[in-house]
Amino acid sequence: ININQGGTPQPDGSICCEAESPECKVQTAYQAMMQYYSVHMQAISNRGPDGSGVVMNFTDGKEYQVQADGSCVSWCPIPNSEAGRLTPLALEPISTDMGSKTYNGQKVELYEFVEVIPIVNVPMSAILQYID
């Protein structure tokens, strides 16, 4: 996410405020994670770049905070409203088929869904789904 209020684009693609522009404000944010979704195992795993994250196990009804090596830091019960069988994922209707790819040595189909702020047409997030 880039929010530019008076910044000047630089040749390297960055945006900077001039020293004599006290009202100038530039904000950037970035978030990345991998989500593993397994109907067979009844689990969802969300992992950050360092490998740590959260695993929701619908078989035992618990959500685990885990370290990169998979060891449990803490756990909480999954709320009753979310308990039950994990159902298969559905693609967003406006997802784009990006074609056949190889992911971790396996042939998959890549789909991309981009969320955009409608009024200003600014992309807010991109979701890549590798489907085998």
Provide a short characterization of the protein structure.
The chain has strands at residues 2-5, 8-9, 15-16, 25-28, 34-38, 43-47, 53-57, 62-66, 72-77, 96-103, 106-117, 122-131. The chain is mainly beta and 132 residues long.
Q: Indicate the low-confidence ranges by residue numbers.
A: none
Over the alpha carbons, how many angstroms does the gyration radius reach? 20 Å
Helix content: under 10%
What integer is the average pLDDT?
84
| Major sheet size, sense and barrel closure | 5 strands, antiparallel
Strand order of the largest sheet: 5-6-7-8-9
Give the number of helices: 0
Number of strands: 12
Order of helices and strands: EEEEEEEEEEEE
Q: Structural class of the helices, strands and pairings?
A: mainly beta
Question: What percentage of the residues does DSSP assign to strands (E)?
Answer: over 45%
